[in-house]
Design a protein that fits this description.
Length: 153
């Protein structure tokens, strides 16, 4: 297992990505979207991201299973309903959508690249190791869920 797998909490990675996006936008200013476009699309993506995040987080409480993404082996329930019926990773998708919304406000190509890096990092170092752990815990039930519901969307 590579050293980066499951080591950094995903919310921290999202916040650091957002911070780097802001820094890059300030250091390498570029003409961006007009205010109306930035606001409509920025708020739109952030709203959709929040609409995925909140029920996802509440589902972990409802199903009384761990929400700790660095310890997927402690999962006691496989959640497959609600937003988890749309995406196997609605929390990470919500974070990605928040970053895309943020990108509309910072309007910088480097920031867009950072969104892509976040997506790739989360897939490789968070989601794939989580899926291995869930497969070992839930076996055929997770395999069936994985066939039915896409990783991101």
């Amino acid at each position: 297992m590579p050293q980066l797998e499951l080591r950094l909490p995903p919310p921290l990675i999202a916040v650091l990505t957002g911070l780097l996006m802001w820094i890059s936008a300030n250091w390498f200013a570029q003409p961006g979207f007009n205010d109306l476009t930035a606001n409509v699309l920025g708020y739109g993506f952030c709203a959709i991201g929040a609409l995925l995040l909140v029920p996802s987080i509440l589902s972990f409480r409802t199903f009384t299973t761990t929400i700790n993404p660095t310890r997927p082996e402690q999962s006691s329930q496989l959640i497959t309903t609600g937003v988890f019926g749309i995406s196997r990773n609605p929390i990470y998708l919500g974070m990605l959508l928040l970053l895309i919304g943020w990108w509309f406000w910072v309007s910088n190509l480097i920031s867009l690249l950072l969104v892509v890096v976040f997506f790739a990092y989360m897939t490789r170092f968070q989601i794939i190791p989580e899926e291995r752990a869930l497969q070992s815990i839930f076996g055929e039930r997770f395999a069936s869920y994985r066939k039915r519901v896409r990783r991101w969307i």
